[in-house]
Structures are given as C-alpha cells and as structure tokens.
Amino acid sequence: MASMARHFEVLVVGGGPAGIAAAITAAECGVKVGLVDDNVCVGGQIWRGEAKKSTLPEARAWLQKLCASSVTIFSQACVFHQPAPCTLLAETPDSLLALQYSKLVLATGARERFLPFPGWTLPNVMGAGGLQAMVKSGLPISGKRVVIAGTGPLLLAVAAYLHRAGVKIPIIAEQASRGRLAAFTSALLGQPAKLTQAMRLKLSMAAVPVRTSSWPVAAHGREKIESVTLSVDGTLKAFPCDYLACGFHLVPNTELADLLGCDIRQGVVSVDESQQTSVESVFCAGEPTGIGGLELAVLEGQIAGFAAAGRPEQARTLFRKRDKLKGFVRSLNRTFQLRSELRGLSAPETIVCRCEDVRMGQLQPYTSWRIAKLQTRCGMGPCQGRICGPATEFLFKWHPDSVRPPIFPTRCEALSATAGLETRATGGQQ
Amino acid sequence: MPDQVTISVDGVRVAIAPNTTVAAAVLIAGRSCRTSVTGEPRTPLCGMGICFECRLTINGVPHCRSCQVLCEDGMEVRTNG
C-alpha cells in the first residue's frame, strides 16, 4: 500500500460547505491548506453532485472558487486515526495518507438519526437524505411512490427534490405537532430568507399533503418494502410505496473531535467565538457545533478559516452575523424534538443494531451502552454505533462512552503502517 | 466520456450511466448489497458512507462501501447476497 506524508499549515477535514469555506478562506490568507474528504467529490451532502452538474448558484460559486484556489484536495480519503500529535491518518482506496498540520479545522458534518420500528431494515427503506443521496448518485426514481416520514426540515427539502424528479409522494409524515411547527414558522419571521425558502419548497409541491403529529409504525413487504403503516394524527393508515424515506433530524459527527480530546457537551463540540475547540490547535465549524444549516455552516467555516490562518481580526468581522443565525439551532432543536411515543415503536424482535442484528428485546435488560455492548454486541459492527448509538440514546438515554482508533473500519495494511508511525512518534519505545 | 459503463454484478453484465455509484448500480440490477448476520437482505440506508449497509466486494476487495465508489468499465461487483 503506497503511503504519502504531507504537511499543511491548515488542514480541513470534511468537504461540505463549512469545510470548503474554511479551506478557501485560509488559503486566501496565504497559508498552505489541505482539504480531506471521504466522498467521491467535494460538496458534502447538501451540495452533493454540484461539482459535476451545478444547479445552485451559491454552490457553483464556492466550488469554482475552490477549484481556482491553492487548496490541495484529497477525495475518497477517510480519516481514521491520530497516531502522533498533529498527524492524521487517512485511508484512500489505494493509499495511506499521513497528514500533518499546524492547525486543524473539523468540518465533519452530520448524519441522519434513525429510529427502529418493525420493518425498518427491509430493502428500500432508506434515510430521507439517504434516498436523495442515492438518487443524486444515479438511482432512477421517476414514477416511483415514495413515502417521506420522520422529522426535521430535511424532509421538506428532500420531498421537493424528489417531486421535481417525478416521484409520487402520497404523504409527508412529520412527527412534530402543528403547534410546534407554527411556533417555528413565526420564529422564522426574523429570518425572511429562511421563511421564503420554506414557503417556496411547500408551494413547489402544493399537491403533496404534509401531516403533522404523524410517524411510521411499521414497514411491510417480503423481499423489499411494499407498504408502510403510518400513525396519521392518531389514526393508523397504510400507504403502498416503492421506497420509504425516513429520518429523524440530524446528529453531529463528533467522533474525530472526540478522538482528538475536544470537549463535547450534549452531543456537540464546544467552541469559543473563533470556532476554536478546547484543544488549542483544533477548530470546528458547521453541524458538529450544533445543527444549524447551510448559512451558519458557511459563516462558521469562514471564521474558522480566518482564525486557523492567524487572522483573528478578520474572523471577528463575521461574529455578529454568525451569532444572529445561532438562534436557529435552538429553534430547530425545540421544534423537532422527538416525541415520547416514538420510544414505543419497536417490538421485542425489532432489530436495533443493524450491523450485528441485535434486537430490542435483547437490549431491554441492560442499563448502559457499555454493558449492552459487551453482552449483546450492539454497536460493535462496522458502523461502530453511528446508527444504533443515537437511537439507543433516545430509546434508553444511553451515552456512548469512548471513541477509540481506528474510528472507521480500516484495512490491515493501513493499520500495520500505522504501527510504524506510532513507533517513530514515541522514539521507538513500545 | 462514454454514454455508459458496463460492470458485472454477481456475474451479470449491467450497463450503467457514468457517474453512478456502485450502490445505485446494484439496486438497478435488482440486487441487495449484503446479507445481515441473521440472513436479512440489506440495501443502503444512509447513502453517505456512515451505515456500512451497502458494503460488498469490488474487484476482489471485500467490505467496500459501495455508495462511496463510482462504477468503472469492467468493474466486478460481488454482493454478499
């Protein structure tokens, strides 16, 4: 396996909007910048596919700027370990990268939260963002029937995207109540851009019913999903479908921040006004500091980019704009808080941990994530608890208690090369 | 760029549009990606490299996240089905 070592004054992990903004901003300050991203193309989830065929003017502008910049981009590179201070290891399909940094910006984004219910492991039950990503990656969807369910503003955005792609959407089931959504909408009055965006999304698919206080109860099908039963405002109704796109808002990806020793509180990375974490050389921007959406992510990225490049005075000029948007994080959390009824969806035989097929009934006797893990293998498969961890946090109030390298499954070749690096870093003492 | 690339999914040739991920191609071919430890067929959940439900063997390399890999002409894909 080929290996390569590079040093950057500013290294950015994550090529979504926050990471792109941080990388460009730092590069424009004249420092040497590297950007490492796990995906085939930069853009993250929200700008997925925009690098090849751009439809969003803002995405196009940032991606063109990135191409024209001096930033060195490593795509399909998955960061899995920090074997020595200020050195990250990343695995690509054919090589191992040792990336050294003076300052690091974490822009690792978020993932969807999934909750177990009977049938959720059936083929063609996907995340809402998950199905959108698959369609952007070439899955033909025109003419298919897709039920959209869960919670969060992503549901509406995905529905509008699928609607444009020729999908028939019988219903969007949002678990939040009408009252909560109404409060959210009035909170948006202070942010006309977001309100206009939400109205435009809904108007673009006027015929699609959005039902509040509604959620999935069971997915049915033999080889793949054929229908889904929803609780629609208190009444059970079955909807035939080809796909169920279902996600319960977002969870920040904090595993790397955790590995580096950054302070994490209530699931989000703590940062100061310059986006600096509790570890001096490490900054964090975008969703890992709290789910706040695109506009906030870009601003945080710019601030982190300036600060990491040693331009605190320029970072400061953006503080007010950022702080104004930060209120959106709180209203999102409040509005799309999960209702307690969702804890009762799983039957004893419902799988909770999809990697190890651990069922609800097997987990119920245990009182902590660690004990459940040791006794049942819950969270010990390749996703390392990224899917069942947030679910059990909601179901049982369990908290994953440690992150250990490698933070992603890694080939033995890469791991053995890592051992060499660790030996060098400790002066050969084992 | 060619109009199509041809890959093989479990020995069956499939013509796919360029810039399609292997995960999407496997669904187009009507296959699931893997079989779970208790024998359930699985297809992608997250679509972004987190859940590992789409993992399969590409050109002999096992456990590849197929949602993070683009189809290339002549690629040999083995699902764990």
Provide an overview of this structure.
The complex is a heterodimer of chains A (about 425) and B (about 80). Chain A has about 425 residues and is an alpha/beta fold. Chain A has three domains: about 190 residues, FAD/NAD(P)-binding domain, CATH 3.50.50; about 140 residues, FAD/NAD(P)-binding domain (3-Layer(bba) Sandwich); about 55 residues, no CATH class. Helix content of chain A is about 35%, strand content about 25%. In chain A, the strands form six sheets. In chain A, strands 1, 2, 3, 4, 5, 6 and 19 form a seven-stranded mixed beta sheet that branches. In chain A, strands 8-15-9-10-11 form a five-stranded parallel beta sheet. In chain A, strands 12-13-14 form a three-stranded antiparallel beta sheet, with no helix packed on it. In chain A, a hairpin with a 2-residue loop joins strand 17 and strand 18. In chain A, helix 1 packs parallel to helix 8. Chain B is mainly beta. Chain B has a single domain, classed as 2Fe-2S iron-sulphur cluster binding domain, sarcosine oxidase, alpha subunit, N-terminal domain (Ubiquitin-like (UB roll), Roll). Helix content of chain B is about 10%, strand content about 30%. Chain B contains one helix and seven strands; from the N terminus they run ββαβββββ. In chain B, the strands form two sheets. Chain B has a five-stranded mixed beta sheet, covered by helices on one side. Chain B has a two-stranded antiparallel ribbon with strand order 3-4. In chain B, strand 1 and strand 2 form a beta hairpin. Chain B is globular, with a radius of gyration of 12 Å. The model of chain B has no long low-confidence stretch (mean pLDDT about 95). The chains are: A alpha/beta (about 425), B mainly beta (about 80). Chains A and B meet through strand 8 and helix 3 of A and helix 1 and strand 4 of B.
